[in-house]
Write a structure and sequence with these properties.
Strand content: 5-15%
CATH superfamily: Cytochrome P450
Helix content: 40-55%
Number of helices: 16
Number of strands: 13
Mean pLDDT: 92
Bound molecules: protoporphyrin IX containing FE
Oligomer: single chain
Order of helices and strands: EHEEHEHHHEHHHHHHHHEEEEHHHEEEE
Number of domains: 1
Length: 447
Amino acid sequence: MALLPSVKETFARHHLRAMTADAPGFLLETMQRVGPDFWLGVGNTTMTVLSSPAALRHVLVQRAGAWGRGSALSDTRLLFGNGIIASDPPLWLRQRRTMQPAFHHAHATRWLEAILAATDRCLDALPGNEPFSVRQAMLRLTRESIVDVLFSDTLGADAELVGEAFAVIEQVMGERAVALAKLPLSTPTAQRDRLHAAIGVIDERLFGLMASRRAEAEPPVDLLTMLLRATDPETGQGMTDQQLRDELMSTFLAGHETTTNVLTWAMALLGQHPAEAKLAATEVDRVLGTTAPTMESLSQLPRISAVIRETMRLYPPVWMIAREALEDAEVGSVRMPRGSVVLLPMFLTHRSPALWNEPAMFKPERFLKETSTDAAAWDFRYLPFGAGPHVCIGNRLALLECVVVLARWLQRGTVELEAPHSVRHAVGISLMVADGLPAKFRLSEPR
Ligand code: HEM
């Protein structure tokens, strides 16, 4: 049987501390020393880390049926329950089929309207000369967009409350993502109680949404209606309220946390690279002028689109996927018994010097020729949306949203970062900019 390079702890709990301080950075540095696939001793456990294109293709696509979420997502289960993000077949397959039509590109014009309206509201509310958190602004904007797109609703008076609850969830998940030792979330602790209370606030809003939609005589065609109408092909029964809640929570969170991080990182990278920012702004000026983006004009913004794709190469919000072997499995010629967990950090693949020229550099032009975000088009060197049966269901919506928001912000003004050279990453629910990216927004001169 083949072996992977094995990186053992040389000092007591050294790796554990390094993973806690900066897991993406430590794994990247390890990959640069030993290669893309390795065993890593961390505290009392050995992690299997796979980031080579061949291993990713094998686990996510070729042998996808042998690798499930299993227990690999134990913490997030409290949030997502058995929702599509955390489930395995047969439940996952049924839910994926039910939801797929809501993400069809045919809805793109309606998505554009919702996103544009939320973006303009956000830009209108930015403080004139005062610094604000780009991340918080993007969270509000993307949250409003996703609630409109998927549930044809607004958070209205609850926006503040939902925002505060989300901040607690993010903080607890962030703490747990890097905790040296942690109790399972089933153990009663003050941390768990805070998390439960925050989830409860969002749950209340989601259950409210369900109730009011059920009372509507002519409901809109959106994800919420599709979920409410879905029936089990064997039993003919509809989804339980709990399952519905799990799906709404999954799509609500997955649908705005990720796009927030891409957009915040895009602002950070453009702030650090004025020449790239100028090229992007010039394209927006030339193509859009002062008119709002349309489906037609959006397709003429290759540089904006390349900035988004390059941002997701350097900072993929889902920086790592985890899978558990549902049966005895083999990756390459390495055998892994049922129950083995593998970590698949695409963050490493996207920055591998064997796969990319100057991998640490921000160079949007890499994505001017090959614009696809499909893993196969890049031979599994680039997969911000994952690959195989679980590939992101919202990828088209996400790309549209990121391009619209970035173009509109550049059209309406300039983001000036308070500290462009001290931008750091942090691991929360996904890979984010630490400290929220303080900046000022200078409105463009009227043209
Ligand atoms: C730029 C933004 C986004 C990125 C980078 C992203 C990334 C990903 C990735 C890597 C996966 C695969 C996870 C796995 O294999 O376990 C995934 C799955 C998923 N994403 Fe996204 N996502 C984004 C936006 C969205 C949006 C806007 C939605 C809309 C609701 C969404 C909903 C989902 C769902 C429901 C899944 C689970 C799919 C399944 O297991 O069948 N995502 N996403």
